[in-house]
Every structure is written in structure tokens, then in C-alpha cells.
Amino acid sequence: MNPDDFADRVGAEKSTELDRLGSQQLLVALTGADLEPEVVLTASANSEHSAAETFAEWADGSDDARETFERLADQEREHYERVVAELDEFEPLDSIDSMQAYLRGLDDDISRAGGLVGRSLVGNRTLLQVVNFFVNEADKRRANLFRDLRADTRENVEDGRAVLAECCADDDDWNRAFDVATETVQIAYDDYADALTGMGLDPKPIC
After folding, report:
1. Are 18 and 121 in contact, with CB atoms under 8 Å apart?
2. Do residues 112 and 65 make contact, with C-beta atoms less than 8 angstroms apart?
3. CA nearest neighbour of 27 among 35, 16, 37
4. pLDDT tens digit sequence for 127-156
5. Residue 200 falls in which region: left (phi positive, over 0), alpha (psi -120 to 50) or beta
6. How does pLDDT run across 68-99, given as a tens digit for each residue?
7. 3-state SS, residue 84
8. Per-residue pLDDT at 20
9. How far apart are CA 104 and CA 92, in angstroms?
10. Is residue 207 over pLDDT 50?
11. 125: exposed, middle or buried (Cβ count in 10 Å: 0-12, 13-18, 19+)
């Protein structure tokens, strides 16, 4: 395994889960089927806030990748501020989702970089659905806002690969990063599936 094919291999391993996370049902799961602009924005703001806090924690505990994680924390804070600016009022949730809890439990740069790749692959799908939502709402400005956020998130895959290229010394390191990346996707998918199942919906169809 190497930096050039790492993300592709993660994507191939979790292709079904990622396809379903990129379905129209994703926002149903994230909003509890309350598909109003304010609710979608609130869910997005909480996601950006949680990510910023996660990357800040990683930066504090990192040596080799501190600069990368600090930059990502700043990026997510900017994302958060841009989304919150669209809301009349907002208070971040005290709780975090299962994926962020898993990511915060990672304690070395190789695992964190693997988690970054997995989180970015998930975020790319999530943000596409937010873009599509605002396109359908005929809200071009907000659709463009989330296009910007999605473009940054796609680039974060490369950030993860760059850290891995710097830190991985052998196949065991690459395999460990791969396991973390795929587990990150799986946890995000399980949350999605559980939310839909709890509403009596089938998470399997891909729209």
C-alpha cells in the first residue's frame, strides 16, 4: 500500500457504505426527517464545530503532524463560522456523534491520518447532499457556500495521505491506517443506518 492508492483502496473497501451515505436519505437521518433549511444548517454547524474541536485536540497531541492538524482546525472553525452566519441563533451541542468520538480516541499520527482520510470521504458525501438540498431550495448562495466547504473537505483526503507518506515506515503502519480509515466510514454508516431504522426506514436503497 502507498499514498497514491490509499484513499482509492479505502473507497473501494467501503464503496457500499459510502454510496449509501451519499444518498438522498442522508439528510433524513441527520435531521430526523425535518428537512427545513434551518435544521439542515444546524446539523451542518454542529458537524463543523465537532470537527474543529477534534482537529484541535489532535494538534495538541501531535509532533510530526501538528502543523497539518492546526491548519485543519482553523479550516473547520472558518467553516463553522460561515455556516453559523446563516442562522439567527446557534448553540453547539454538548454531545458529539459516534464518528467524532472514535476519532478523538485515536492517539497517534498514523491512526489520525487514517481517520482523516475516512472522515473526509464521508464528509464529501455528506456535503454533496447539503449542496443538493439548497439547489432544490433554489438557494444558490447557500449551495455555493457548501460547494466551497466540500472542495476543502475533498482536499483533506490529500492532507491525510501526505501525513501517512511522512509517517508510515512499513506495511504494518499502512495497514493500521487503512483499518482506522475503513472503521471511520463504518461508524458513520452505522449511525446513518441506525437513525433511519429508528424511523422505520430502510437504509439500503441507494437514491
Report:
1. yes
2. yes
3. 35
4. 999 999 999 999 999 999 999 999 999 999
5. left
6. 999 999 999 999 999 999 999 999 998 899 99
7. helix
8. 95
9. 17
10. no
11. buried
- Global pTM reads 0.95
Burial letters 182-197, b for 16+ CB under 10 A, else e: bbbbbbbbebbbebbe
Specify the amino acid at residue 124: N
Q: How far apart are CA 155 and CA 95, in angstroms?
A: 27
Domains of the chain: 3-197 (1.20.910)
Cell for 199?
A: 424511523
End-to-end CA distance of the chain: 32
Output 65-70 pairs: Cβ under 8 A, ≥24 positions apart. 65/109, 65/112, 65/113, 65/163, 65/166, 65/167, 68/159, 68/162, 68/163, 69/112
CB atoms within 10 A of CB 96: 19
CA dist 164 and 113 (Å) reads 6
